[in-house]
């Protein structure tokens, strides 16, 4: 996902970048992209630097951490990037905390692919669930308990644990 700074003559400017999910496919574990990823950008120019604020939205299929089925979701995240147009050798301490892109002289293309990937990775929940009520898989026989029931009763597990405890004693 990139754009050319030379396309704009007045600031601030707003525009939208789109990217086929294929470009990021496989780079984030546990998800597949359903449709184009959209990045809405607000770009400001301050002296020789640019301040970019972006909101990224990606329609995705996510694997539920309980039942392992894929479900439809949307990842939304924001990114703030400082674009410097001259390469500064002395990187100030304050710069390290910001997301910075340094453009060399005569370089005008800003590539945001890595930052979009990072933002989407952070937007993904640690333990995604298809539904708060998701019953998950039976730990014994592995059936999807949202779709069917099995004969493994919770009591059975308890008895086994008792058996194990007895052995240990
Ligand atoms: Zn689930
Ligand atoms: Zn079972």
Would you summarize the structure shown here?
By secondary structure, the protein is α+β, with helices and mostly antiparallel strands. The chain has helices spanning 113-123, 154-168; strands at 2-4, 13-19, 31-33, 37-46, 49-63, 70-84, 99-102, 109-111. The N and C termini lie far apart (62 Å).
Q: Could you give the count of β-strands?
A: 8
Number of domains: 2
Radius of gyration: 24 Å
Mean pLDDT: 87
Distance between the termini: 62 Å
Overall, the morphology is elongated
Taking pLDDT < 50 over at least 5 consecutive residues as the criterion, the unreliable ranges are none
- Measured as a percent range, the helix fraction is 10-25%
Tally of individual helices: 2
- Molecules bound to protein: zinc ion
Please summarize the sheet with the most strands.
6 strands, mixed
Q: Structural class per helix/strand content?
A: alpha+beta
Describe the structure.
This protein has 169 residues and is an alpha+beta fold. The chain has two domains: 2-134, no CATH class; 135-169. The protein has two helices and eight strands; from the N terminus they run ββββββββαα. A hairpin with a 2-residue loop joins strand 4 and strand 5 (49-63). The longest helix is centred in the last third of the chain and has 15 residues, at 154-168. The radius of gyration is 24 Å and the shape is elongated. One zinc ion is lined by residues 64, 66-67, 69, 129-130, 134.
């Amino acid at each position: 996902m990139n754009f050319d700074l030379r396309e704009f003559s007045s600031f601030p400017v707003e525009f939208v970048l789109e990217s086929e999910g294929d470009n990021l496919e496989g780079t984030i574990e546990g998800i597949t992209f359903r449709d184009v990823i959209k990045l809405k950008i607000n770009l400001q120019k301050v002296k020789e630097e640019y301040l970019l604020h972006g909101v990224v939205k990606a329609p995705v299929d996510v694997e539920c951490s309980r039942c392992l089925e894929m479900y439809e979701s949307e990842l939304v995240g924001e990114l703030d990037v400082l674009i410097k147009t001259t390469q500064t050798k002395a990187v100030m301490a304050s710069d390290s905390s910001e997301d910075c892109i340094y453009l060399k002289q005569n370089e005008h293309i800003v590539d945001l692919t890595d930052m979009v990937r990072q933002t989407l990775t952070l937007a993904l929940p640690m333990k995604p669930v298809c539904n708060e009520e998701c019953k998950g898989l039976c730990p014994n026989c592995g059936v999807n308990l949202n779709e069917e029931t099995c004969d493994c009763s919770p009591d059975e597990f308890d008895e086994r644990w008792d058996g194990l405890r007895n052995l240990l004693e």
